[in-house]
Each structure stands twice: as C-alpha cells, then as structure tokens.
Write a structure and sequence with these properties.
Shape of chain A: globular
Number of helices of chain A: 0
Largest sheet of chain B: 6 strands, mixed
Largest interface: A-B, 18 and 20 residues
Number of strands of chain A: 11
Strand content of chain B: over 45%
Helix content of chain A: under 10%
Low-confidence stretches of chain B: none
Shape of chain B: globular
Largest sheet of chain A: 7 strands, mixed
Radius of gyration of chain A: 13 Å
Number of strands of chain B: 11
Oligomer: heterodimer
Order of helices and strands of chain B: EEEEEEEEEEE
Helix content of chain B: under 10%
Order of helices and strands of chain A: EEEEEEEEEEE
Structural class of chain B: mainly beta
C-alpha cells in the first residue's frame, strides 16, 4: 500500500529565516506530487505540482520554491520567510491523468512565522 | 475564469440528513471530487463523479449534473464524527483540480 510522509509536523520560524519541508511517498512509482497551503479557515491553495523528477510547475508567484530530486521526494523551500508564509502546508500525491483528482495527503506541517 | 462555489457553513442534527451543494465553472471538465477534512487534519478523498447521476457509498452519496455545473454531497444518518469541512473540487481539461473553499458542517446532538 502507498504511504506519504511529511515532516516536521509543526514549525515556528522567525521572519527572514530559511525553510525546508520534505515529503516522501512509498509504494508507488512516478506519482504526481503537490504542495498546497491552507490558511486558517480557508480552502486549499495549490503552490507547486510535479509530474516527474526535475519537473516543477508553479501556480502562484511567491517567496517559495520546490524541487523534486528523486521520484518520490518533494521539497518545499524558502530562502527568507515572510509573515504571510504562515499556514498549514500539505503534500499530496496522485496517479496521472484522470486519476489525478484522487489525491492522497500527508499529515501536514503547521508553520508559524514570527 | 474557473470557480467553485459552496456554502461556507451548515448545521445539522445527529441522525438527520444533510445535502451540501457545489456549483462549478471550469475550462473543460474531467470530474467532480469531494473530500472530507477534520479540523487540524489533512483532507481525505470521499467520492468522484464524472457522469451524470448519483454515486452511493455507504452513508455518503454524491450527485452530478454536468449540464447544470452542479453537484451535491448527501450525508445520511449523521454522526457526530461527520463534523468536518467538506471540500468540492472540479478537474479541468488539464487534469488540474480547482478547489472550493469548503463547507464547514456542524453536527448538533
């Protein structure tokens, strides 16, 4: 069976500090991978998605970047955090094509920028 | 543009039935998805409709009308554990999900 790991669970970082969130998937090959952010009480905002190693699509211009160094590893980074980067960050995977709508999420990282 | 509309919040009574509506406008259409999200947790997939009609899965059913750009999620025999946000998402022609803001469902005893 497939599992998705995401860490850390919570993070408190000062403004201007760097960020690295990691997500790994087990039990599947060549998944689509996604990074979402969710502000308190709001819907999901797609930040990045990837259909393969080194292939990253950015949905929203911002202070963040993503990389996919291995097939089942997806990393979200920032060089300098802003207060507005606070939120609930979720990594997800799916199969491709029509099956991309059935997404499986990691447990999330709650980031507070102070 | 692409848009998903669903009510912000609904309240229902334990044991009752509730219907959560969703309307969508997308560039092309490849299916309508419902997710459940408990407070502080990640969303989990509930259902998928691509053809018109009703899909039943236990206490949960989902309906789609492609001509009307409309879907609903029907929850029967409500339990306290059904208190959660329900997210509607439509897949566009590029196989990208367009997400609604979610409907917070409050269940009262």
């Amino acid at each position: 069976s497939q599992t998705i790991h995401q860490w850390p669970a919570t993070l408190v970082q000062p403004v201007g500090s760097p960020l690295s969130l990691e997500c790994t998937v087990e039990g599947t090959s060549n998944p689509n991978l996604y990074w979402y952010r969710q502000a308190a009480g709001r819907g999901l905002q797609l930040l990045f998605y990837s259909v393969g190693i080194g292939q990253i699509s950015s949905e929203v211009p911002q202070n963040l970047s993503a990389s996919r160094p291995q097939d089942r590893q997806f990393i979200l980074s920032s060089k300098k955090l802003l207060l507005s980067d606070s939120g609930f960050y979720l990594c997800a995977w799916s199969a491709e094509g029509q099956d991309a709508g059935e997404q499986y999420f990691g447990p999330g990282t709650r980031l507070t920028v102070t | 543009g692409q848009n998903i509309d669903q009510p912000t919040e609904m309240t229902a009574t334990e044991g009752a039935i509730v219907q959560i509506n969703c309307t969508y406008q997308t560039s092309g259409f490849n299916g309508l998805f419902w997710y459940q999200q408990h407070a502080g947790e990640a969303p989990t997939f509930l259902s998928y409709n691509v053809l018109d009609g009703l899909e039943e899965k236990g206490r949960f059913s989902s309906f789609l009308s492609r001509s009307k750009g409309y879907s609903y999620l029907l929850l029967k025999e409500l339990q306290m554990k059904d208190s959660a946000s329900y997210l509607c998402a439509a897949m566009d022609s590029n196989y990208q999900l367009i997400w609604g803001a979610g409907t917070k469902l409050i269940i009262k005893p």
